[in-house]
Amino acid sequence: NNITMSSLLSATAAVHGRNGQTSLPIHTSEGGSTIPVAFDGTNLSIGHAEPHAIAIDGSGIDHGITQAPYERRFSPYEFNGGTTLAISGPDYAVIAADTRLSSGYGILSRNVSKLHPLTEKCVLGSAGCKTDVDQLRSVLDIKMKVYAHNHRKPMATPSAAQMLGNTLYMKRFFPYYSFNVLAGIDSEGKGAVYSYDAIGSFERTPFSASGSGQSFLIPLMDNVISHKNRLDEKRDLPAEEVVEIVKDAFLTAGERDIYTGDAVDIMIITKDGIKKEVFQLKAD
């Protein structure tokens, strides 16, 4: 211990002795100090000839090409891309999502659905990190089954919307990296669409979009669905017309967003159940 302490003191004295000539000065509230420019084992290391020598400048660590310390990061999240869109109508709701699964500039799959039916009248659309989306779906399915067993009926769409918000909020300190929209039919038979942020704040809206192509779809939907800043009369659109609008919207997003493409799953939700349709997009 005495040898180590004396060596440490001599190394510290050597740093101050250089007076910043071969070192970078550091100014702190507790006085000045210096940090060596190069980590070659000669600046701060205890002499390696000494029997109990310990390198304190990191020269004993292989830092790769740089020969200097650098930060290593790990992220539990990955953005796998994708776009979702939901539109509510007088007695229906339409929800759609592309089927491309990406990682960086690579396409991992061209046929992964981002839509997940929770009941026969309620569908969840999720873009973001695939693993988090899968985990969120599992948690929601379990809660739906528990509710169905306890109450002998499926959960209503507004209740499912609240449950999704609670589930996301429960993980607010380590959120699901999932961008969600929920579409379905409420107890009055009207179309319902709910828009969410990452930690469960939600609202019922005429339409909602999420994911990598969100910024391309929302202005278009503001025009053709919400009818904002238009002088012509707003009319109720039939489900078939909304489906065609959805197809055009995803073709539009696919032109500018590399994470949106291959195909789009479209689900039309009515009081009679869910009807599914697949529309092919370009694969490049």
Task: Present the secondary structure layout.
Elements: H1 2-18, E1 23-28, E2 31-36, E3 83-88, E4 93-98, E5 101-103, E6 106-109, E7 115-119, E8 122-128, H2 130-151, H3 157-170, E9 178-185, E10 191-196, E11 202-205, E12 207-211, H4 214-224, H5 239-256, E13 263-270, E14 273-280
Antiparallel strand pairs: 1-2, 3-4, 3-12, 4-13, 5-6, 7-8, 8-9, 9-10, 10-11, 13-14
Features of this protein?
five-stranded antiparallel beta sheet, 5 helices, 284 residues, 29% strand, alpha+beta, elongated, 29% helix
What would your notes on this structure say?
This protein has 284 residues and is of the alpha+beta class. Helices cover 29% and strands 29% of the residues. The protein has helices spanning 2-18, 130-151, 157-170, 214-224, 239-256; strands at residues 23-28, 31-36, 83-88, 93-98, 101-103, 106-109, 115-119, 122-128, 178-185, 191-196, 202-205, 207-211, 263-270, 273-280. The strands form 4 sheets. The protein has a 5-stranded antiparallel β-sheet, covered by helices on one side. A 5-stranded antiparallel β-sheet has the order 7-8-9-10-11, with helices on one face. Helix 2 (130-151) packs across helix 3 (157-170) and helix 4 runs antiparallel to helix 5 (239-256). The termini are far apart. The relative contact order is 0.15.
